[in-house]
Design a protein that fits this description.
The radius of gyration is 65 Å and the shape is rod-shaped. It starts with a helix and ends with a helix. The chain is mostly helical and about 325 residues long. It has five helices and no strands. Keywords: Coiled coil.
């Protein structure tokens, strides 16, 4: 383009430098003057054109350099933008991967905690069933003991009834004899000796019957303790032996019921149940905290996704 403009300018210069041929006659001088004036005007115009062309060339070169600089800056900015996009994509990929790993780890922990909670609940349920079973067995043994006592009382009471009836008759007879024996002291002494012999004859069978009853009760309690099994409850047996070895003047105490023994195993199971429930509550609190942290991570991930969408929209 510049070469074409230079050729056209050269042609114009050549055209301006051409000198017209001189004419003969009187009109040659004014024509020469006008030609010289035209040549000077043309030279002035050409000089102005050359100056303007130089300025335009300088302006064009400056604009061209500025355009190149702008193009270079735009290319650098585009390259930086591509690098920033690549880095951002890598960062987003790494962040998503980390979030997936955290979510996966949190889900595994939640699953483990849920499994522990379920195992604890199952163990607690098993403990409750075991406690209920022991309580039922305890009630059953208590009922069997009561039935055995009633059965022994029903079996032994007929054998004591004749002796007691005879003792009552003798006591009434002694009372009647004492009321009529105040007149004669010798008769009273004789009757007292007879009464002592009669009472002695009554006491001996009663003592033998009491021994028999004690032996039966002792065997019954031993059989009952054997049925219960050896679980550490030996206090009732020793108390029973001590009761059966009491003095002969307290025969009725042999049939008194023994105090109930507290079930230590039931207490241990109840304590273990409370500990299991506390452990369940602690695991539930941990699971709730983990769920809250996962929910918070999800909210942060949603915010980052919205921010990324905004940045992509701005880039586009």
């Amino acid at each position: 383009m510049l070469e074409q403009s230079g050729d056209s300018n050269a042609q114009r210069d050549n055209l301006g430098n051409e000198v017209p041929t001189a004419k003969t006659g009187d009109s040659a001088a004014p024509e020469v003057d006008s030609v010289q004036q035209l040549q000077q005007e043309l030279k002035r115009i050409r000089n102005e054109f050359d100056g303007q062309r130089a300025k335009m060339k300088e302006l064009y070169l400056a604009k061209e350099a500025e355009c190149k600089r702008f193009a270079k800056e735009a290319a650098g900015a585009r390259k930086e933008l591509e690098e920033a996009k690549s880095q951002l994509m890598v960062m987003e990929y790494n962040k998503e991967k980390d979030m997936e790993e955290q979510n996966k780890r949190a889900q595994e922990e939640i699953g483990t905690l849920q499994q522990l909670v379920q195992e604890t609940v199952d163990e607690s349920t098993l403990c409750q069933h075991e406690i209920r079973k022991l309580l039922d067995e305890n009630d059953k043994l208590r009922q069997e003991r009561q039935e055995l006592k009633e059965e022994l009382a029903q079996q032994d009471s007929p054998s004591l009834a004749p002796v007691l009836n005879q003792a009552k008759k003798i006591i009434r007879k002694l009372g009647a004899a004492d009321s009529s024996s105040h007149d004669n002291l010798e008769d009273s002494m004789r009757k007292a000796q007879e009464d002592a012999e009669v009472l002695r004859s009554l006491v001996v069978p009663l003592e033998e019957e009491i021994k028999t009853l004690k032996e039966k009760l002792r065997r019954a309690y031993e059989d009952m303790e054997k049925n219960r099994g050896d679980d550490g409850r030996k206090a009732p047996e020793s108390a029973l032996v001590g009761m059966l070895k009491e003095a002969k003047q307290e025969p009725a105490s042999a049939t008194e019921p023994t105090p109930e023994v507290t079930c230590e195993m039931c207490t241990n199971y109840e304590t273990k149940l409370v500990q299991c429930q506390e452990q369940i509550n602690g695991e539930r609190q941990k699971a709730t905290q983990l769920e809250k942290s996962v929910e918070r991570m999800r909210e942060e991930l949603a915010k980052e996704g919205a921010m990324r969408a905004d940045l992509e929209a701005q880039w586009q």
